[in-house]
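Bench notes, afternoon.
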Amino acid sequence: MNNKNTVVFNSNFLTIEDICDIAGQQATIELSTQADFIKRIDKGALFIDSLLKEQGFVYGVTTGYGDSCTVSIPLHLVEELPRHLYTFHGCGLGNHFDAQQTRAILAVRLTSLARGFSGVRYQLLQQLTTLLTQDILPLMPQEGSVGASGDLTPLSYLAAVLAGERDVLYQGEQQSTDTVFARLNIQPLTLKPKEGLAIMNGTAAMTGIACLAYQRAEYLSQLSTRITSLASIALNGNAYHFDEKLFSVKPHPGQNRVAERIRADLQVTESAPRNDTRLQDRYSLRCAPHVIGVLEDSLPWLRQFIENELNSANDNPIIDAEAEHVLHGGHFYGGHIAFAMDSLKTAVANLADLMDRQMAQLMDTKFNHGLPANLSGADAEQAMINHGFKAVQIAVSAWTAEALKLTMPASVFSRSTECHNQDKVSMGTIAARDCIRILELTEQVAAAVLFAAVQGVELRGNLETLSPAVQNTVKFVRRFSLFLSVDRALEQELRQCLVLIREKRWDLYD
């Protein structure tokens, strides 16, 4: 039985979740076959053809690109120009985007082209849809984009693959595109004059990565909240730091949502007996809703920035075939994604810092209110040779430091390039890549602190008195990572936990 959603590309509004579902192969895709949609798409390409016949001049069609826009292209060479565009941009370096990221990028580019303002043929949309449905993934280097004039270098690899060139990832193996196309009887596409520019001159790489980053951050917000609850229990914290009346006087909705979740975890109610003999816990417990709440309260506007970019026509020039206008502008500039990713990575890194401080409290007998040093579960006879989570804390500190180091905003490092035509650029793709790395590091911190917090809760005892949600989290962790009674290497258990985190394999809050 197929329970996957179907995402239809028909110029309608798509969401972050649509792109993430496609990227994770949790959705099937369809390109609209409605006659009016096909006609509207093809009308843009026909308008370009008519301009060539009538005027003989269109930017990027009968001219060079960027600073070379004053160079006229003779009509007999116009058909060759798109291939030159994606060929000379084939200079990307660094790691390739992974399979999930590549699917997201392809889906984002298809969403933009399906708006109908890019002057491409419906046939090109069909070819792009084929790549997604057959899971033929262009190998796109991550490095080489300044985020305006769009993601030219990475997207040049998509353009080349549509035309049957370069390499793809297919069935888990790197193969030449022409070999895969021949095996599947796919005809390479000869790009029409505006089509190379339309594919490459947009923000698909940064926006696809931003969609994935958003969803990972959204889950990390919930996970760090549950870890805070576990840490508060393990440290005998004051649960009334999360009191509803207390938070009503500072009405940030996301911050209040975090406090509400912790209250439920800790079973804080008006009728519950108060246990607040320690008036004030350290900030990493007491102020956790305020830290996590910054991310929670950022999610709505981050969604707005990302989804508006996702559903925009963002190449240049924009082709208004209905009114027969060619509109020259700068919609390829990825400033909104750059700002969103620079902001998101800072909020996420603060979660790593928060959990790192909670880990420090759990480990240190000066601050952990009676727990054994380093959360060691060894019995008295073995205590002197067992080290608990000592090394794990060192690793958490390293991961947190690296995450914090990467929070320098990429968008302020604009570089004038391309003979000063691109003299102010967004750096949106670098910001998005930084954000993914910070998410990876913060997920590592979360996995490690989750193990430690669960250990602390079990060392404290009285599991049966805890809320069902907290008990379920403890049980879930113990399915793949047993209580640490004697020293053992935790790498593989941590890696398994990371997979479960990244797949969002357990529900945390409704």
